[in-house]
Design brief:
Blueprint (H helix, E strand, L loop, with lengths): L20 H5 L4 H4 L17 H11 L3 H9 L3 E2 L15 E2 L5 E6 L8 H13 L4 E4 L6 H11 L4 E3 L1 H11 L10 H14 L3 E4 L5 H10 L8 H13 L4 H4 L1 H11 L2 E4 L14 H19 L4 E5 L8 H11 L5 E4 L11 H14 L4 E3 L12 H22 L6 H11 L3 H7 L3 H10 L16 H10 L4
Parallel strand pairs: 3-4, 3-10, 4-5, 5-6, 6-7, 7-8, 8-9, 9-10
Antiparallel strand pairs: 1-2
Bound molecules: iron/sulfur cluster.
């Protein structure tokens, strides 16, 4: 593929779009630095993206198609969409100057396998407004579960193919994970891409060197990533480099063929506040940054996954580091959870971290459910998790100045001012829950609520201001 230096490229007139202010303020400036470097750092990613898909996304984002195209080409935005799934109902773009997106994880475990229940979770996640879904199944017939989810999934679908590779080796070949061959790992990746998965998590940045650093430094919670642990087990036993790192070009070939977006996973993400922003985490991020460059050179879209457990005062630093080290690649964080002490409420700890991360420029938030750290989520957990993270994403969008993001809030406040209850409920992020709460405890007077009853401040002040001044 022809390599084009972004900094020397003269954009066609159609592409000279003035990015919204928000898009400019979350860029961490490495573009300007490229003029001091010997080699170009911004290479065009050529995506054969259907114009109708881009039009649809541009309309829903309130940006021009040209802006979207330029951002995709520079790697600052990704459109996770397999070449086989161009016709899905709700394609999405993740990145610079766009609304913060939310992902919902579903999927079976070895202890609980019920395809019907996973499809119910999918339905609820979509109804609650998730932008993407990840199937993280590790129990049952993974192939058929994925097929069933793909069939019903109207938004981009992501997976972690190493789960399938490991489960197949253990379940069908009766070997241990450490006996998995490199081909078995890559065959699973290829199978997922061939099936139509839109983005895959690949823990390419877990290397022998970063594992050694982890051992030397020591951690409170060692490694909490399933994919990261599988790979470390394999690497330590075989005394070999991570195949996803060593044969990264093979991975890029597969991703390019199916136009699958790589989500470069953080296998060494901190699993507790004590381990946040430590040497292994940052070492892995530096390696991932280099892999982002290599993917861009090959025309493969990448985003970068992030932690995990991070104290609130380190969230901004983590966003800044990712944007700097990975040349503004879209950042996809799990939460982050800003305290370790709230099992049962981790959708809230994650939403606090998520709102802060989004406000500082994070592009994509993975939800966390109330079941986190305790069990596989229920359908109701999925709904709660999506809504909580959508609130975080929306709060972040207002803070980072995404155009018109506060219109929704103004609309709600206007209905609230005029005590228009039906409209308030329809406008709510979760109308069903709002209605349930209003209906379960009705006030004697229809136009107020039981919180203040006849002393309703809004009603009183409205009456006062309606009267002419004396
Ligand atoms: S009764 Fe109180 S809480 Fe309810 S709408 Fe009026 S001011 Fe608000």
């Amino acid at each position: 593929m022809e390599k084009v230096c972004f900094t020397r490229y003269i954009a066609p007139r159609s592409a000279r779009y003035i990015a919204p202010r928000s898009a400019r303020c979350i860029s961490y400036g490495s573009r300007d630095r490229s003029i001091f470097l010997d080699k170009p750092v911004y290479l065009f990613i050529i995506i054969k993206m259907d114009k109708t898909v881009l039009n649809k996304i541009a309309r829903s984002e309130g940006v021009s198609v040209e802006y979207l195209q330029e951002s995709i080409r520079s790697g600052e935005t990704v459109v996770p969409l397999n070449i086989k799934r161009r016709k899905i109902k709700k394609p999405t773009a993740i990145g610079k100057g766009l609304k913060t997106k939310v992902n919902a994880n579903i999927g079976s475990s070895p202890d609980q396998v019920d395809v019907g229940y996973e499809l119910e979770k999918l339905k609820v996640a979509l109804e609650a407004g998730t932008d993407t879904v990840m199937d993280l199944s590790t129990g049952g017939d993974l192939y058929n579960i994925r097929k069933a989810i793909l069939k019903k999934c109207s938004v981009p679908l992501g997976t972690v193919p190493i789960y399938q590779a490991c489960v197949d080796v253990v379940k069908f070949k009766h070997k241990s994970i450490v006996e998995m061959s490199v081909d078995e790992l890559f065959n699973a990746i290829e199978k997922h891409c061939e099936d139509g998965v839109d983005f895959i998590t690949v823990h390419c940045g877990v290397t022998l060197e970063s594992v050694e650093r982890l051992r030397e430094q020591g951690r409170l919670t060692d490694v909490v990533s399933r994919g990261g642990t599988f790979l470390i087990e394999w690497m330590v036993y075989n005394k070999k480099e991570n195949p996803l790192y060593e044969y990264y070009d093979r991975l890029l070939d597969i991703a390019k063929e199916y136009e699958v977006t790589l989500s470069l996973g953080d296998g060494l993400r901190p699993g507790s506040l004590a381990d946040a922003t430590d040497r292994p985490q940052i070492q892995e991020l530096i390696i991932i940054g280099e892999l982002v460059d290599r993917a861009r050179e090959r025309g493969v879209q990448t985003m970068v996954e992030g932690p995990g457990h991070i104290p609130l005062n380190e969230v901004a630093t983590n966003v800044m580091l990712e944007k700097k080290l990975c040349r503004n690649a879209p950042f996809y964080v799990l939460g982050p959870l800003v305290t370790d002490v709230a099992p049962g409420y981790d959708h809230i700890t994650a939403a606090i971290g998520g709102a802060s991360a989004a406000a500082y420029g994070t592009d994509f938030l993975c939800y966390v459910t109330p079941s986190e750290h305790l069990s596989l989520p229920t359908v109701e957990d999925v709904r709660e998790g999506v809504v909580a993270m959508r609130i975080a994403a929306h709060a972040g969008d207002i803070a980072k100045g995404i155009a018109n993001s506060d219109r929704w809030d103004h609309k709600m406040s206007n209905f609230r001012k005029h005590l228009k209850w039906d409209k308030m409920i329809k406008t709510a992020i979760d109308p069903k829950k709002a209605k349930e709460i209003r209906d379960r405890n009705p006030s004697k007077s229809k136009d107020v609520c039981t919180m203040c009853g006849e002393y309703c401040a809004i009603k009183h002040i409205g009456d006062i201001f309606k009267k002419p001044r004396r």
